[in-house]
Amino acid sequence: MPARDIFRNGLDAQNPALVQLLGLCPLLAVSTSAGSALGLGLATLAVLVASNLIASVLGRWLLPEIRLAVFVLTIAGAVTAVELSMAAWWPGLHDSLGIFLPLIVTNCLVLARAEAFASRQPVGAALLDAVAMGLGFLLVLLALGSARELLGRGSLGADLGLLLGGDVAGSGVRIFGAGHGFLLALLPPGAFVLLGLMLAARNWRRQEKHSATRDAAPAVAGRAAT
Amino acid sequence: MDTNGAEPVRRRPLRAALLLAAAAVVTVGVVAIVNDLARPRIEANERAQRVAQLAEVLGGTRYDNDLLQDVVTVRDAERLGTDEPLPVYRARQAGQAVAAILTVVAPDGYAGSIRLLVGIDADGHLLGVRVVAHRETPGLGDAIDERKSDWIDAFKGRSLGDPALERWRVKKDGGDFDQFTGATVTPRAVVRAILNALLYFEANSATLLAASGS
C-alpha cells in the first residue's frame, strides 16, 4: 500500500475515532481539556508505534494460534514501560492522565492495528500506519478536548502546563470567565453530544461530496455523447 | 502463510507453548529493566511532591526538620471524618514545634469524601488548606481545588475564634464563607471538615505537638 494511502486512511478515510469508532472510552473520558487530551494522544501514539513495530517484526513467524496472545502480552508490556517512564520523567502529566494511561492496554485501536495491519506488513508500512492512526486519534481527541474546554471553562490550553510539569496557572488563553461556562460540555453527556456532532459533520461532508460527484457524472457523459 | 506444513502435528502445540513462553520472558524482562531505571526517579518525584504539598500547607512557615519523618498517627471518626488512622506531620524549628499538618476527610462531599491537608500553627491559626483528593463535579464543586480557584485561601489565618463558632459556615447557612454558584454541598462539607480539624487540634494540641517518640 502506498505511503500516501496509509496516511490518508489514518487521518481521514479510516480515522480510528470518527470512522472505526475505536478507543471511545478514553476519548470521551480524558477530553475535558486540550492539555490532557494532547497528553493521552501522545501516549497512545507512542504505544501504537511500539506495538505495530513488534507486531510487524514477529507477525510472520508466530503461529496463528498464539499470535493474538503474544500481541496482547507485548502491548501490555509496552504500555507498562510507557507508564513507568512517564511517572519518572513527566510526573505532572502522569498524574493528570490517571487511570487512563494504563488503560491504553484496553484501547482496541492498538490491538486492532497490530493484528489487522502491522502483522501482515513490512516494518516501514507498519510504523507509518502507527503514526497515521495515532495522529488521527490524537487530532480528534485534541479537537474534542479543545471544544469541551472552550465551552465548559472558557479557556483554551489552560493545563498544557501539565505536559511540561511546570506551573499550571500561566499557560493557555482565557476567552471568558470560568463561572459562565456551559457545564454540560465538561460532563460525560456533553462528550457524547459533541462527538455525535463531529460524526454528523463528517458524514454530512462526505455525503455532500458523494452527491456532488454523482450529479457531475451524467453531465460529463452527456457532453461526451453530443 | 504457514510454511511448516511438513511439521508433525504433535510437535505444533509444543512449539506454540515455547514461543509464548519466550515472548513472556522477553516482555517481563523489558518491563523489569524499565522499572529498575524508573523506580528511583519515581520515588524521588513522589517524595518531592509530598514535601512540596506539605510545605504549601504551611504557608511559608520556617521549619528545619524532615516533615515526612516526624509523623504521628491519629484516629478520630467524629472530628477527622473517617475511621482509618491518619498521619499528622509536625514542623519544628530548632526542636520547637511550630505547626502541625492534619490529614482530614470531609465525608459528606457531593461525590464521596474529600481529603484535605490542614496546616495549623502552634497557636491554632490556619496556615493553609489544600484538597488532596476529591471527585467533585468539574466546573462546579472542583473550585475547592487551588488549581481551579483561590477559594481555599480564604481560610488562611482563620482560627476557632475568627470567625465565631456559629459563623463557621457557608454564607447560605448564615456563615462567613462563600459557596459557589450552583454548588453548596461541596464548600459546606469542606468548611465543616476544617472546623472539625481546628476543634480536634484544640483538644489534642499538647499530644500532637509533643516531641517525636511520645
Shape field of chain A: globular
The helix-strand sequence of chain B is HEHEEEEH
Number of strands of chain B: 5
User: Major sheet of chain A: size, sense and barrel closure?
Assistant: 2 strands, antiparallel
Q: List segments of chain B where confidence is low: pLDDT < 50 over at least 5 consecutive residues.
A: none
| Helix run count of chain A | 9
What can you see in these coordinates?
The complex is a heterodimer of chains A (226) and B (214). Chain A has helices at 3-13, 24-30, 34-59, 64-89, 91-97, 108-116, 123-153, 161-164, 188-225, and strands at residues 155-156, 173-174. Chain A is mainly α and 226 residues long. Chain A has one domain. Chain A has a two-stranded antiparallel ribbon with strand order 1-2. Chain A is globular, with a radius of gyration of 20 Å. In chain A, 43% of the residues are buried. Chain B has a domain at 71-208. In chain B, 35% of the residues lie in helices and 23% in strands. Chain B has a five-stranded antiparallel beta sheet with strand order 1-2-3-4-5. The A-B interface holds A 32, 58, 62-66, 69-70, 73-74, 76-77, 80-81, 84-85, 87-89, 91, 152-153, 168-169, 178-179, 181, 183, 186-187 and B 1-2, 12, 15-16, 19-20, 23-24, 27-28, 30-31, 34-35, 37-39, 41-42, 45, 49, 137-140, 147-149, 181-182.
Describe the structure concisely for a colleague:
The complex is a heterodimer of chains A (226) and B (214). With 226 residues, chain A is mainly α. Helices cover 70% and strands 2% of the residues of chain A.
Task: Please describe the structure with a list of short key phrases separated by commas or semicolons.
heterodimer; A: 226 residues; mainly alpha; two-stranded antiparallel sheet; 9 helices; 70% helix; globular; disordered C terminus; B: 214 residues; alpha+beta; 5-stranded antiparallel β-sheet; 5 strands; elongated
